[in-house]
Amino acid sequence: FKESNFLRLNYGFSFQFNGLKPKDNQIFVQDGDQTELETFEFDLDKSKFRMDNLIIPIHLQFGSSKTTVLDNGNKRFSDHHFKIGIGGFAGINLSNTQKLKFDDGRRNEKLKQRDDFNTNNLLYGLSTYFGWDDFAVFAQYNLNSIFTDNVRDLNNFQLGVRWHL
Length: 165
Prior knowledge:
12 strands
């Protein structure tokens, strides 16, 4: 593939913001080393749990690219055609925030809780994408659970759009 650059290794880093929105007036609560959903005492207008992560993806990318020969004779390849990538990722959890909006009977309240909520600090999983030029649609599945040592494993599955700089 020396001339076509059809198969290549693609890597980088990304910031990821994953959000969970519990239903039925529930919030995430730490109980020792367990994180569970519990019913909140007031009617919630909003319940959202967000995890901010730094991710390093590594993919085998298939697809042709445009070749440009530089003045010094070196070749530069750039993605200007259809591409497909398969691979995985590893990363770290940077922070967790739970946002709640509710009326306590006297006034509207907004509560923001920042804690570790027993989340896994290290993340890893499988990912894939397909796209054209600098844009791609991706899917990603975390092989490790969101919370450590919970009775029930919860794994993230993400769909999104990527923009290659």
